[in-house]
Amino acid sequence: MWRLIKILSFLIVLAGVGLVAYAYIGPVFFPADFAAPTQEVSNPVTLETN
Questions:
Q1: pTM of the full structure
Q2: CB-side neighbour CA atoms (13 Å) of 46
């Protein structure tokens, strides 16, 4: 049972390190995934008056 807990905790730590590495290094290797949308959005707004 102790071995299972150690393996799960190691995998959780490894996943956390991988997520942080992807957040910092990801824009260098995958710039399209981190790019902001470049499409202009315009929606009409109707304001009610008294």
A1: 0.60
A2: 1
